Amino acid sequence: VQLVESGGGLVQPGGSLRLSCAASGFTFSLYDMRWFRQALGKERELVATITSTDGRANYADSVEDRFTISRDNTKNTVYLQMNSLKPEDTAVYYCNAYFAPLYRPSYDYWGQGTQVTVSS
Predict the structure, then answer these.
(1) How many degrees, rounded to 5, is the angle at CA 113 between CA 41 and CA 106?
(2) Using CA of residue 106, residue 73, residue 20, residue 36, what is the dihedral sign?
(3) How far is CA 15 from CA 51, 99, 103, 115, in A?
(4) Are 13 and 117 a contacting pair, CB within 8 Å?
(5) What is the pLDDT of residues 60-119, one digit of tens each?
(6) CA-CA distance, 57 to 66, in Å (whole number)?
(7) Which of 16, 31, 45, 105 counts the highest number of beta carbons within 10 A?
(8) pLDDT digit string (tens) for 19-53?
(9) Distance CA 108, CA 86 (A)
């Protein structure tokens, strides 16, 4: 199982970045996909989720209307489009795959993270 994030970097406030997470080794279409982030000295927080069944998206209040999560099941890839970036968006961003089958243990996979730094 692999989740490989890419697209992080340094961007000025107000700028945009698009993160990608390429998945392999599991049935991608069955998994809810999520983006988390962890800023230095803070706990990891959930940023966005996209469901496996209907592609419904949910966002943390802090990124609502600025970030967009999407998935391409033909490419086994999930994306996070980040617009109007703020310094407080600076963090390591992690891709997560989650599947909870009925009456069975859940599956929970993580990527290695990609650094996003918003600074002038």
Answers:
(1) 100
(2) negative
(3) 27, 33, 44, 15
(4) no
(5) 999 999 999 999 999 999 999 999 999 999 999 999 999 998 888 889 999 999 999 999
(6) 13
(7) 31
(8) 999 999 999 999 999 999 999 999 999 999 999 98
(9) 29
